[in-house]
């Protein structure tokens, strides 16, 4: 645009040396040259009276910057605009904080001045990225795959079961609408109505307070398809994610790896494993077989009693003295245990344990004894907690720039009722179809029946899930849903308007009491003696 | 696909002569040939046991239909599928109504069995058309014009003024959220936040019962732009409508014609005129100047008193006897008036009246006397009512296949308060900027100040509207909004999930009493005598 007359509107980013104004709008920055000519002193003074973040309209002429003054870091760094006239559209008074990335603001302040906070490059990037990703998803579903975008009502009847719902008083005293937890019923009716392929970016509501990955209102990519099987849905969703994936986040590969629920619980103690790092759960029951340690004996006597461990590589840190023999457990992980001395005498047991856990010098091992259904989730939580703690000490555990997508499949169709573990209830919802090969077990061994339910997990977050519906008792094959949770549930770099701090869901001491001991392997020699620090 | 093995799933549309099944899915119909071979009698019997609308899966081979048996009306009319196996996915029992266009159903029945009603070709077409139009709108805004799609919260604070809002009890006793009437505040904050170009397909809520063109929850294309003027927004919206316009509805031309509020009120008695037909309002005050008729004299003495008329072409119909001299007024329009005989004596007045109204033989003229602000809206309503009545008698007035888009501009900035006409209130919202040339009248003649507000009208429906905002007292130029109402407000062929009957908002007799007389011009001769039927 060199030599062109232009009109620019935007916010003042900087004022520099009475010579330049840097103007910002949605598309970026540009340098405005303040005229130094005597005849334009009025215009110059107007510029000098400006404050940062004021909104102005400048008319001027574009010119190439003098040689050597280009700024290669700026996309408009080769040009500048010589101001010819300027109008102040709005003056900015003193702001509660500067609009700069490096200025740390409290969350409360950011929320109070949300309209200023959103001016930051990071928030602008997030909002625009979300808009573009959602647009690509729509193109994929609507234009490439013939889905019909149907807006379903949000003032509706209460759905029995599920989350607590917001209610809306109707004009009819004593009667209320409910805001939907999801468009579940509507989309299944749409299948009956022959829409075949439905999608919606659906607003959903749950009156359950804010959680890091779920706010009271959130948006999900809501899909329902007739005449399809689990493999068909999974490949559709892989295509969807692949198509809408932002270029600047690097390539992702499809198909995504797949893991059964049983494998996920066995190796990671959770049904949404973060597979960016190891520290898998190891069953070390055999090492303790025949052990005389009282609480271990007790644990193994219980039904499904077992002993499991995780090994935290470099889980111990050197003291500042640099003494290589003086390891201390990572603070906060230093759980006291009166029985440690008892264990520490069992050298052979230790040998076996370290081999099974593939432990090296400086590693930290957690051992847990108890019923399998308790031990696994607990070690699963500890595993994540260890990763966070190590990272907070600067040890790289999870690469924040990689994206590990993972399908978790073959969920149990039933789980024990929370308030009455003798009884069963649907693990997801009561219309999830069983895996056909397991259908014959429905009335004899219902705990063994797997459901045609599948979750999509990204770096340890459940970002989607769905199931094949029961459409008739004998033939579990009809229509499916795939819900991708709001971009809010994506890792930090994807979050749009969510500013909730991601407080990790720490294991409470209460949780830990009955099960845990911590063992710190103290020396470089796996055959060696235990350290006195225990 | 001739000679290919295919698997088809769908609904049974017809069963024909024990030979064919017509299967339907979202993409259309296909003919399945039932095997007649003795060896396949089991499969044949399975087909013969089927009921219409049952859901089946058929595997078979595609073949070209025998010569002469092609069906040119069917897109798959050149082929058929020879069934090799069939599975019943769901059996259809007796339905409350047949899924056929020509079977008339009551609205209540359609609503009760919405999932069956939506199977009809018309509803399928509407839902799919809506989805496609909305997708095109998004492409235009997001991909072609750099708009950012931002989802704003729906659990929010109450907005003072405006429509009645739905409330949602919060966890905090005595405190409530409001469901938004529109994302007004959020989008203006987004402008402050530097989003520059925002759009959203926004769900809005008004607790005001259902109206034909506004349901308690509805969706609008919600737009806000920084640094733009009225002409810029209008051309953006013309582009949006043009880009997303469905091919099968014919070409529409941009730019759309424009009319001032004053012109619309003068010619059509309404700010959203249906310009598909004439019957414009005519001021016939001069014809009655000096009239001795008491109520006319009275009316003209009042401030802004006037006499206006509309001429309804062919507004009278012949009786069944065919007697050409025996016209009767269209039923329901035959408003009795004790003063008719008085008027009918004034032949000269009549001559002038008919000339001014450009009336021909068989036309019907309505004359109204009173203050202009009452007379115009009343004749405006009557004009629409006449069009509907004529159409119900088979007289073509409005072509249902044409789409007359129209901008209405230069709205007054203030209107008299409803409960106190001496006072003024903002005609739209209090942050609409005045037209710059009128700004100096703000404190002296506020009634004369025009606002930078504009409405988009389609065939007499307000389908959109917006305004330039006040961003600072002296300079009304900053950001604008354009709201296109939900597709629901489009004419019938565009409606998606709206099934409300469009009961016309008839003028009540109460309304008519103080103002109206009807004059029926009875014979073919404009110079002739009035008919006895008066």
Automatic annotation (TrEMBL), chains A, B:
Keywords: Aminoacyl-tRNA synthetase, ATP-binding, Ligase, Nucleotide-binding, Protein biosynthesis
A single Gene Ontology CC term: mitochondrion
Single GO BP term: aspartyl-tRNA aminoacylation
Keyword Aminoacyl-tRNA synthetase applies: yes
Domain Aminoacyl-transfer RNA synthetases class-II family profile: 127-527
Gene Ontology MF, one: ATP binding
Keyword presence, DNA-binding: no
Record CDD domains: EcAspRS_like_N
Highest taxon of source: Eukaryota
Family: Belongs to the class-II aminoacyl-tRNA synthetase family. Type 1 subfamily.
Entry protein name: Aspartate--tRNA ligase, mitochondrial-like
Origin species: Sinocyclocheilus rhinocerous
Lineage of producing organism: Eukaryota, Metazoa, Chordata, Craniata, Vertebrata
Gene name of the encoded protein: LOC107720851
